[in-house]
Amino acid sequence: MRVRLIDLTRGLVQENPLLRLMIGLCSALAVSVKVENTIFMGLAVIFVLTLSNIVISAIRPVTPDNIRIPIFLVVVSSFVTIVDLVLKAYFPEVYARLGVWIPLIVVNCIILGRAEAFAYRNGILASTLDGLGMGAGYTLVLIVMGIVRELLGTGSITMMGVTLISLGTGFQAPTFMITFPGAFLTFGLIMGALNKAQSALAERAARRATGSAGRPTPVGGV
Amino acid sequence: MGEVQRYFLIFLGALLIYNILLIRFIALCSYFGISNSMDTSIGMSLAVIFVMMVSSTLSWGLWNYVLAPLGIGEFLYIPVFIFVIASFVQLEEMFIRKTAPTLYKAMGIYLPLITTNCAVLAAATEVAKPGFLKMSIAYNYTLPEAWVYTFGVALGYSAALILFAAIRERVDFAPVPGPLRGYPMAFVTSALMSLAFTGFAGLFGL
Q1: Domain ranges of chain A
Q2: Does B186 contact A188 at a Cβ distance shorter than 8 Å?
Q3: I want to staple A95 with a disulfide (CB 3.0 to 4.6 A). Which of A87, A128, B45, B55 is the partner?
């Protein structure tokens, strides 16, 4: 079996589950109030996604096609239960803050979506890489959202009781950012910024391509 | 608290104050995925109301008569509830296809999607395992209370979905700046809608 790097990197930008595939949004918007939460949530999702991808890929020869969804759900829910109980036992504070989002990883569309679209059709190694990449892409966006929301909403970023960045006492923090509407707004603007950056990059690449071929830049651009 | 008043508070809390989409962020995937057309939104809403009522009843019964008496609820509730919902939805899809083809045409294609609709699992778990969603009036639901609560949640889901679909059909024709066109604008729109719904917080001391 050949190892392809694309399986790992696909989830980061081109097919980022949150910004491009638009799946797994619920938990992302809800937990991004605090950077610390986002790191734990990201790790939980990477763990469940990678392991369930491995198992689903491994049992694919013996899975009947008609009842594959309930089977996927049983696999996923076992791993979610592991995370649920471990967090509750060792990190009770974090568990209290993440709350319902840990049990709800079961129905997180990313995990079932990747099981159906990737792990059910590919080998174990490729599925592992896909799980890691998609999980990392999810975590990345989550952390960016957490930084923006916590910094603007509270004026500082605290992690494990230590203040990392502070905007100073003169900053009047708009609590709007850490409430529910702030999550929608932040996510919409991040998505808009990514669109803008991608179209700018594409435009520059197109201009360079035409420039090196010695042709004039087309009027109107891309 | 009077009987009627309690039901009213549970219903209103589930419908407006803790609106499952805009305040709880549960089931957002379907919210953004299907709200681009009014017809699909209405079809999905009907399917969700139906599935949610039945799955909450099932989970309530399972918790109170099987899981809690045996003392295995704490670590088995996730697999049991999701398995019950998934198999029930599958069964229902086959049943409707056989007995009511018209109904199947109207809401059949949404049924498989509902399995991964977090709102169904969230409501089913909340009525069975109180305190799951951390509502300020969390307690042990009786069966009628569970029905009232679930109906409130499902109606709140439908209301937010249909309102949003109506707004999105208009926004499609609005002059939106280039990079924000499409989904980003949908998020900004729902930020404003969510802001309106936060206005209900604190109503009746909930």
Answers
A1: 5-181
A2: yes
A3: A87
